[in-house]
Design a protein that fits this description.
By secondary structure, the chain is of the alpha/beta class. It folds into 2 domains: about 90 residues, Ribosomal protein L30/S12 (60s Ribosomal Protein L30, Chain: A); about 150 residues, Alpha/beta knot. About 35% of the residues lie in helices and about 25% in strands. It is built from 10 helices and 10 strands. The strands form 2 sheets. A 6-stranded parallel β-sheet has the order 7-6-5-9-8-10, with helices on both faces. A 4-stranded mixed β-sheet has the order 1-4-2-3. Strand 6, helix 7 and strand 7 form a beta-alpha-beta unit. Helix 6 packs parallel to helix 10. It is elongated and about 60 Å long. It starts with a helix and ends with a helix. The mean pLDDT is about 90.
Length: about 250
Amino acid sequence: MISKQKIKFITSLRHNKYRLKYNSFIAEGHHVVNDFINSHFEVTSVFATKSWINSNYKSTLFNKSQIVQIVTNQEMAQISCLKSPSNVLAVISRLKSNFDYSSISHSLIALDGISDPGNLGTIIRTADWFGVKQIFLSQDCVDVFNPKVVQATMGSLSRVHICKLSLKDFLLNLKELKYISYGACLSGTSIYSVKTETKSVFVFGSESHGISSEVSQILDHKILIPGKNQDVDSLNVSVAFGIILSEFV
C-alpha cells in the first residue's frame, strides 16, 4: 500500500510552490515516463499498477527496482492528475536551467508570457519534432513542470532543455553576439518573403497580448503568417509556432 504521507507528497506536486520546495515534478503515462527514465533526468520513484509492471518492467525499468512501488488502480486514481489515470506515474527531480552563451545554437526560440499549459506543452513537443534542443522562456511563462505542460509534451520535455530568464536582457545580450531577432506578430512582413540570418532568434508572445512592449521594442523584425480570411483575427500560438518553425527551422 502507498502511505497517506506519500499520497500527500505526490498530490502536492500539482502546485508550483511544492514543486519548488521539493525540487520535483510528476509525469504520467507509459510513453512519457519511459522517455524520462531514458533521459538525463533523475527519476526518484515510480508508482505503477501490477499489470503495467508485468508488461513493461524488463524493457522499461532496467535495474531500477529500488524506486518502483506497485499500487492499485484505486491508489493510482488518488495520485493521478488525469481524469482517466494511466498505469504509471513517476516523481522526477527538476533540472537547473542554467546555460552559457557559448553553447547556444544559431537558430534560437524564445517565448514571452505563454500562460496556457497546453500551448506550452504543444510548443515543446513541436520544437522537439523539428530538432530544437533548447527554448528560452520569460519569467512570466507558465511553469514548464506543471503536470499539464509535462503531459502535453508527450515526453519531449525529457529532450528539450528549457531555460527561464529575463527575456529582455537575453535579447539584448544576443544583439551583442550579432543575432537578429524576429517576432511573430499580427502585423509585419510575411514569413514567405523574409530571408533570415544565420544567427536568428524567433520570439513568440502570449495568447492574449502577444509580445510584450518591452520585448517588442528590441525586435529587429516583425513577421506574420498571412491569412486569407479576414474574419479570423489570430492563430493559436502553438499553431503559429509550428507553421513558422516549418518555414525557417
